Amino acid sequence: MKILISLNSSWNLYNFRIDLIKKLIYLNHEIYITIPKDEYFQKIINLKLKIKVNQLNIDRKSFNIFKNLYLLFQYLKIYNKIKPDLVLLYTIKPNIIGSIASFFSFKKIKIYNFITGLGTFIFENNLKKKMILSLYKLAFLNSNTTILQNIDDYNYFVNNKIIKASRCKIIPGSGVDTNFYKYNIKNKTNDSFNFLCVSRLIKQKGILELVQAAKIVKKNYPNVNFTIIGSIDYGNLSSIDVSEYELLKKYIKHKKFSESIINELINCDCFILPSYREGTSMSLLEAASIGRPIITTDVPGCNNIVSEGLNGYLCKSKDVKSLCDCIIKMLNTNLQDRLKMGHNSRKVVENKFDKQIINELIINEITRK
Fold first, then answer.
1. What mean pLDDT is reported for the chain?
2. What end-to-end distance do the CA atoms of the chain give, in Å?
3. CA-to-CA distance for 346 and 284, rounded, in angstroms?
4. Interatomic CA distance for residues 298 and 282, integer angstroms
5. Distance between CA atoms of 213 and 208, rounded to whole angstroms?
6. Cα separations in angstroms, 325 against 146, 216, 314, 328
7. Are 214 and 324 part of one and the same domain?
8. Which of 217, 170, 230, 232 is nearest to 358 (CA)?
């Protein structure tokens, strides 16, 4: 089959979809990619996979009607040129505009929409949110299957009548490479205790709450270290501002995102992510695969990875006190219990979130008759 895969980011494809693509190539499918030309575009070319890459001009944040009409035209042109049998669409604009474009293609195409998270718009209550949900509803009229990552997102789309339950399926995430993120026991007790967060510096990831919690905890636990790895997402309306970033640096060590954070994960004692909502958090999965106890929020996309007391602690969303309580609770958890939590984290990933399991579920879904 001819399979076209489209995303709004080359980085996204490079980091999360390559194994799926390799598997599809192995199964003798003809793979086409449409992605924007960012810093990872050439890296994908350099992999020398048997794929055909098409550049897509896409502004993922723009609501300009002319830019979006042009994007629709690009999709229609690509569809009519390639004539794919099925299309896999990831992220908001490809899901919406790529799906709508398929209405006008010369060939009937099977569309598979992958909703990897609801985005920052879900926290708003305005015209923009209503418009996006209406566009999703329109786009999904031509969807063969919409694949969501957790039961809460599934219920949200079904209960709001955006798509029928019969055309939805839950596949829990994009999967993590457990052979790369190998189980690594940290059984040394150091003078300091290291918390690690890997996240974009946006408010919806709970970054401001983490700063306040770090400020409070460090007063009584001076040997506790907090590190965050991630970039400021300037194009995101939820991005932290300059003053908030300066405050962050007083209490948390900041490092820019790198392609491999595995050494940072190995060296941390506990992973922490106080996010407001996720699809299925990849950073939590990577930390769990390494075998670390986790502190995260009791919200969709996080509480399907972490269970209270089993492999970490769950705090309330947007609640600094609750986050502080979990941090202090982890600090007072003895080493053997933390090691047991880390072992349980690894088992959770192996049993449910391993990339081989996830890719098999995806392939079975898109190739079934």
1. 92
2. 13
3. 11
4. 16
5. 9
6. 38, 11, 10, 5
7. yes
8. 170
d(CA 145, CA 164): 10
Give backbone dihedrals phi and psi of 62, rounded to 5 degrees, phi first: -80, 140
Q: What's the alpha-carbon Rg for the chain, to the nearest Å? A: 21
Q: Are both 12 and 118 inside the same structural domain?
A: yes
- 323 and 281: one domain? yes
Residues 235 and 330 occupy one common structural domain:
yes
Q: Is residue 284 part of a domain?
A: yes
- Domain of 52 in residue numbering reads as 2-175+354-367
Specify whether the backbone of 28 is left (phi greater than 0), alpha (psi in -120 to 50) or beta. Answer: left
- Match 């980011």 to its residue by tokens: 9
**The amino acid at 362:** I
What pLDDT digit, counting tens, does each position of 134-175 carry? 999 999 998 999 999 999 999 999 999 999 999 999 999 999
CA atoms of 337 and 67, how far apart (whole Å): 54
Domain count, the chain: 2
Shared domain for 150 and 261, answered yes or no, is no
Q: What are the phi and psi torsion angles at 176 (to 5°)?
A: -125, 145
Residue 83 region by backbone torsions, left for phi larger than 0, else alpha for psi between -120 and 50, else beta: left
